[in-house]
Amino acid sequence: MKITFIGATHQVTGSCTLLEWLPDRYALIDYGMEQGINPYKQQDLPIPASRIEYVFLTHAHIDHSGLLPLLYRNGFRGTVYATAETSNLSRIMLADSAQIQETDAAYQTKKNLRTGAPEVLPLYTQTDAENVSNLFSPCSYGKIYMVDEGLSVRFTDAGHLLGSSFVELFLEDQGCRRKVVFSGDVGNLNQPIICDPSAVSEADYLIIESTYGDREHDAKADPIPMLTEILRKTFSRGGTVIIPSFAVGRTQELLYFFREIKQRNCLPEFSGFPVYVDSPLANEATAVFLQCGLECLDEDARRVLHEGENPIWFEGLHTLTSAEESKRLNENPDYKVIIASGGMCEGGRIRHHLKHGLWNKNNTVLFAGYQAAGTLGRIIFDGAKSVKVLGEPIDVEADITLLEGISGHADRKGLLNWIDRFETKPGYIFVNHGEDGVCSEFAGTITARFSIPAKAPYSGSCYDLAAGEWVRITEPVLKDTENKEKIRKEEGSVRQARLYRELLSVADQLESRIHQMKGCSNHSLEAMINAIKKLMD
Q1: d(CA 514, CA 180)
Q2: What are the residue ranges of helices labelled H in 320-363?
Q3: What does the DSSP 8-state code read for residue 11?
Q4: Across the strands, what pairs with 18?
């Protein structure tokens, strides 16, 4: 009865944990794709894919599901357990991912032919994606499913994405019983459309994410007035608001906000502003949202539906399907909103809109989601003055900003509060799905708060759930030399940009402090002047 940590160890993406619930009986919890630059090697599965009998999928995001077609290609023929909504979203997301794999491979092969380099094969194909999608077994929230001898599962609403779940596994071997809970991604509170995260009553072991385990969201942030003001400023100068967005979840959330802005008439001077969704995948995902069970929706979304209205449609919404429509959109000089995938600017149609819009000082690039280290989105957000987009250097002249208050992940306080809701606390907590340093820090926070031992393991570490002891504790292994140098350069530039943004923030705080000192005593003013002069010397 063991778990081996494979992916999302000391990094945010590539979630994967291997479970051996009986001798030589194996299952996976998630099998996600790595995104962005990750410093450490993720160990390969220690067994052939054909030996894996089950996959338990927490939700449909590619960093949790994206390698399932590869698993099929390598011999997996078992069953994938997930909620019905996760199953439906995964089908379209994996098909889209496979198309990207094929397109990128074909493009690289075409380039290689000119130099005599070998053909590049896709990681997996659309056929692989379709075949693994046919292995899904849809489940409902709250019901315990008897999967196999000594193995049962229950899915509980995680409040992160439509259909997202905490995976509760009930294990038994020769009279030894253990309950293991995998958090997947713990949702933030008060997200539109979907419900808040549910409580889990008890666990022997907990594997928990730590994306924002070192920080807290702005509790006062209300996205509606913030978004309204961003639109007003950008439209007033004739610009376009360009939003890199995840096609599934975040795009639908943004549409909900735009509907609210129009319905409340928050922007009367631009009331007819158009919103273009340039993502065929997002359009398919929106259809899944509209067909989901009511148990997945929060009270506000249910109320809108009961009133016979669509919570994510409004006058002025345009959905684009063809590449030609997407290209024509960049020729449109009028003020507008463009929502395009992908969310971290690593792929998708957003790259074309950035190429045509980043250089324009009238535009705003509005980030509405987490940007992993090393991604184009993170580099832009961290203050780069020039970036390469589709192979071309582009100056960054547009306003770059973040829409606060809409994170799909719980922050440090939210994660701790969720743990606190366990009536019977776990005896040991494993921390994953966090950047290097963050996950270890959060493990320490957990122990300090609850007096529960917690650890952020590296890839390849193995724990015996029955004996309650480590079988193997691995050390981090950096990627190959070429990647090490790339990581060093990328992380150096990202850190430099981040530090510069922090410096600007400190300057703003200093300016605010100076304004607050109006009317202070001469002694206080002289002390402040001398302190600033000393700093400048």
Answers
A1: 54
A2: 323-329, 350-357
A3: S
A4: 4, 28
